[in-house]
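Entry for zinc ion complex. Fields follow.
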Amino acid sequence: MPLDFLKRRGNENDDAAPVAPPATASSVMPEEIVAQEYQLKLYFAGKSSEGVRMKAGPNAMNELPSMLAGLAKSEIEVVEPLPIEFSEATPTIVRPSEAMQWLNAHHALSPITRHALVVLESIDAVDLAFDTFVCAMLDGETDTSGYPEYNAIVGGVASHWDEATGDMVCRAVVGWGGRGVRGDTDRLGAKLLAGMLTNVLASQYALGITSIERPVPAAGRGGLVCAHCGFASAHERAFYCPKCGMRLLRG
Ligand SMILES: [Zn+2]
């Protein structure tokens, strides 16, 4: 319709712009169509170390932030496992219900920790259904809003309770990413991962390297409420409270 407005009416105005090409030209399908291309490549990557079995107990839990000593380049934040009302939380904006849960769970965290969770949850390197995650900026810069640049490395120590023994198992986790990738980030990430694993192993509660078996949801069981701390787990899990590590009683 807007084109009609531009059409000349007879010769009533000789100063007007030249006549537009005949309308018939646009109605014929060309042999090759011309497409305008659009693209955004997001690149997220990360690393997770082997697990270190720890003597269980609240003291070991309280010591988690100190495992980032000498490596953290920002304030260290502790992200606790998510309770049942956030069991669908996912950092995926096109799924509004999951995204709202995620924002409600994490909006109070620092930009650095929120960025870290987006990266590490997207690549499945941490799972807050059972992980406690102690997080900081480890390398690189933030933008003017305080969010890490794509080549900044974020991460920390994640811990969960081993389903077989109830021991606390800690692992170092790093991640980075966004609109781009830089060649030396992977090597730097590996170095930081090793540094944190060294700190974990140096803890007075460390018992040694162990294989990591992630808690798997038990079929047909609802989330249990912990009789010790009252935490209602988001994970339909087996035996141990993600928050306090005490054995869950079957209801
Ligand atoms: Zn508990």
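NOTE: The chain has a mean pLDDT of 87.
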